[in-house]
Structures are given as structure tokens and as C-alpha cells.
Amino acid sequence: MEEKIKQIRAKTIEVLKTYFTEDAQVILQEIKELKKNPTVKDNQPLLEELGVYEALTGFIAFASLKEEEQLELFRIFLVKAFRVGIDVRNRFSIKMNLTADVLWPETAEAFLKKILQNEEKIGTEMITIQGEKEPVAPTLSNWLRDYNRRYGMDRHEKIVPHRYLNESGNIQKLNREEKILLLQLLEFYEELKFPSQKQIETALKNAIDQYVAEEGELAQEISTDETGGEAVFSGFKNEIERDLHEIIDEDINSLLKRFPKLSDQPITQKPIRLLFNDQVVNPTVGNWLADYRAYAGAGSHEISERSDYLLRSRNVQNLSDAERNRLGLILRSYDEGFMLPFSVAEQKIAFEKIGNQ
Q1: Coil, strand or helix: which one is 19?
Q2: CB neighbour class for 340 (10 Å; exposed up to 12, middle 13-18, buried from 19)
Q3: Which residues contact 250 (CB under 8 A, 6 or more apart)?
Q4: Using alpha carbons only, what angle is made at residue 157 by residues 110 and 263, rounded to the nearest 5 degrees?
Q5: pLDDT tens, position by position, 97-149
Q6: Which DSSP helix (H) or strand (E) runs through 343?
Q7: 281 sits in which H/E element
Q8: Helix or strand run (H / E) with residue 248
Q9: What is the pLDDT of residues 220-264, one digit of tens each?
């Protein structure tokens, strides 16, 4: 039995390096079977050790778990996952890609609630919650309670977690490693939040006020002279038509935000098989980027990581030189902000406008 535990430990360490979902699923099944063994069932230390391996491996196979299992990982093992260096953002982004947009706010809220219930400790000394007198244990739930007391529950700008580390007296009780860990968790916590109704209303009011101010200036210009108004309208119409036929240069992330339809543009011919769920899908911009993120992780990447994907991904093996070049340009734009020519009228990247890059 001891040898079997050692093997599972070694496999867990290996899968934390490779991030192979299939291997993680095998380990989870082995642990599940091992827990049925009477010798293990009656040995609490062994059960706890296996529980850690099960949780860490669970984060690697995160997208394949039931949602109630995912939620429990967030409540019990999120800090450990960050502590050992698991790219939780990457594993969670796979779930996000598999969840319908209309369901995502409710789903994100459920995970936020579990984070707020997490009792794992960061640091060893007691901390004091803003507005309270009695010190409390340095659990993630208490750190977040203090954070929310200071800045409120709404979604905040990226600078706020950094401000907390500078302004909270509790931070002095942490060593450098613990400070970095807490900052990573605060940033992840903020990323899960959605703007509050008040924030949405404020943004909407500001947009309306700006629109009214701009339209007011235009209306005043038109009303001063009917002939002049016709000229303004004609110029305005020509400008719109010109905008529709022009080619704009922007990076892929900005283009996808402004023109969501771009996500459906095919960039190669044959269907591709997504790494994170083995599903066969159309070779569109959105699906290629989802596969790339699953392979290399969320966020931008170094040229070596991009080259590794373009060399080793199974989806890339049978691409023509032209297809591989188009894909490389998309990934370069995603990682480096490389500008791509985009046709507003056709709602697609005009690859033919790109010279030798």
C-alpha cells in the first residue's frame, strides 16, 4: 500500500508539470479506487494525503469535473493550488469557454461564494478585520473580508489589490512568498467579479451623457442653416460609408471586442480537435485561440511558447504553409499586439493585405 501511495504521489507531481488532462483523470480514478480499500478507509493520515493529491490533480482535470466538485475545490484547496504553482486561471478559463455566456454571471457568482468560504491559511499570525476588534485566523475568507471592508464588494480596478498590500497593516505579518500568494488570489478574486448594477448604471449614464452632448453639438450645427444641415448630413453619410469600406489596423484582442463576429472567421480548412475537451470544431479564429490557450496557458506568451505550439500541436501538423502563416499571425497578434488589417464591411481579417512579416 505504501508503494502504491508513492506511485500516486510521483504521478501527481508529474502531471503538475505536464498539465495532461488525460493523465490527471487516470490518477483521479486510481485514487477513487484506492479509497475503497479497507486499509486506507481506516487510516485518516493516508486519506488526508490522498485528498491533497486528488485536489491538486482535480485542478488539472478541472474542466472534466462536475461543477459541484469544482466548487468544492475552490472552497477547500484553492490556496494550495496557487501555492504549488498551478495555473488556476488557465484551468478556469477552459470552463469559461465551455459555459454559455448567458449562464456565466451566475456560474462566476457561485465560485465567488466558495472562495469567500475558503478556510485555508495564508500566514501564521492572527489578523484584524477592518472595523472589528478581535483578531481572527489568517484564512483566505478573513483576508477577503478585510479586503471587502476596505474597498467594498464591487469589482475594482487592477491597482486595488496592490493598494491593499501597501495599505493594510496585516500585510506586515506575511513573508515575501505569502504576500505574492495573497496578491495572486486577490487578483483572481477580482477577475471573477462582474460589475455591480450601480456600476453598470453609472457607465450607461456616462455613455448617454456623452452621446447627448455630441448629438447636441451636431443638432445645433444642422439647425443653424438648412442648407448647411444637408451638407453636414451628406458629409456624415459619406464618412460612414467611407468607414465601412476602409481597412482598420488593430490587434486581435481589440478586434474581437469590437467585432465579435470575427470569432467565427475560418482561418484554415479542416476541422480541429480542441485539446481541453477533445471536441471536433470548425477551424475558426475563436476555436484556434481556445486551443492555443489550453495548450500554452492563458495570457500572452513568449515566442518560444508560440513556436512550440506551431510545431507540436496535433492540429497544426497537416496545415499548408499559407494556413500555418495565417495562424502564426493570429497568435502573434494575440501575444504581442501585432496589428492585423481588418475589413469593417466584410467583418474579417484581410490577410491578403499583409506583406511578408
Answers
A1: coil
A2: buried
A3: 258, 339, 340, 342
A4: 70
A5: 777 777 878 888 999 999 999 999 999 999 999 999 899 999 999 999 999 99
A6: strand 340-343
A7: strand 280-281
A8: strand 247-250
A9: 544 444 444 444 434 444 444 444 456 889 999 888 888 888 888
The pLDDT of 153-162, averaged and rounded, is 87
**C-alpha distances in Å from residue 191, one per residue of 1, 64, 202:** 42, 22, 20
Q: d(Cα 68, Cα 49) in Å, to the nearest integer? A: 21
* Contact in structure between 276 and 287 (CB atoms under 8 Å): no
- Per residue in 76-93, pLDDT tens? 999 999 998 888 988 888
Rounded Cα distance between 170 and 127, Å, is 6
Q: For strand 280-281 and strand 272-273, is the pairing parallel, antiparallel, or unpaired?
A: antiparallel
Question: What's the chain's length in residues?
Answer: 357
Among all chains, which residue has been given the C-alpha cell 497537416? 318
Alpha-carbon distances, residue 12 vs 265, 267, 335 (angstroms): 39, 37, 30
Amino acid at 43: N
Close Cβ partners of 25 (under 8 Å, ≥ 6 residues apart): 61, 64
What stretches of the chain show up as alpha helix (H) in DSSP?
2-18, 21-34, 38-41, 44-60, 67-76, 78-83, 88-98, 104-115, 140-151, 159-167, 176-192, 197-223, 226-245, 252-258, 285-296, 303-312, 321-336
Please report how the helices 44-60 and 67-76 are oriented relative to each other, as an axis angle in degrees rounded to 10.
120
CA distance 141 to 120: 8
Q: How far apart are CA 147 and CA 185, in angstroms?
A: 12
CB 17 within 8 A of CB 60: no
Pick the closest to residue 335 from 308, 307, 306, 311 (CA basis): 306
Rg of the chain on CA atoms, in Å: 26
Torsion angle, alpha carbons of 316, 320, 321, 326, to 10: -70
Write down the pTM of the prediction.
0.56
344: left (phi over 0), alpha (psi -120 to 50) or beta: alpha
Q: How far is CA 328 from CA 257, 271, 292, 323, 324, in A?
A: 20, 17, 11, 8, 6
